[in-house]
Write a structure and sequence with these properties.
Layout (H helix, E strand, L loop, with lengths): L13 H13 L7 H4 L5 H14 L7 H14 L5
Helix pairs in contact: 1-3
């Protein structure tokens, strides 16, 4: 059972519904990741986090795959499933 209150995808309205739809369209699995839903009570914050994430994972000095590999490794070190 989740300890963080989250807005379910079917209950999202307005700006949150738009953010969820955009997130789902960019997702390979076509889902809204739980880590994003934990910020659903603050759509303004969620939008800012998503913008920063897109910038972070854009190809630059490192490829997106390299960014993902580093993020996965750090998550494993921290025993975080995300």
């Amino acid at each position: 059972m989740a300890r963080i209150k989250m807005v379910a995808e079917g209950d999202a309205t307005g700006r949150l519904a738009e953010i969820y739809a955009a997130s789902k369209s960019r997702s390979v699995a076509k889902v809204v990741p739980e880590i994003l839903r934990t910020m659903s009570l603050r759509p303004d914050f969620l939008a800012a986090i998503q913008a920063a994430s897109r910038m972070h994972f854009t190809d630059g000095a490192l490829t997106r795959a390299q960014h993902e590999m580093i993020a996965s490794y750090v998550s494993a070190l921290n025993r975080c499933r995300y």
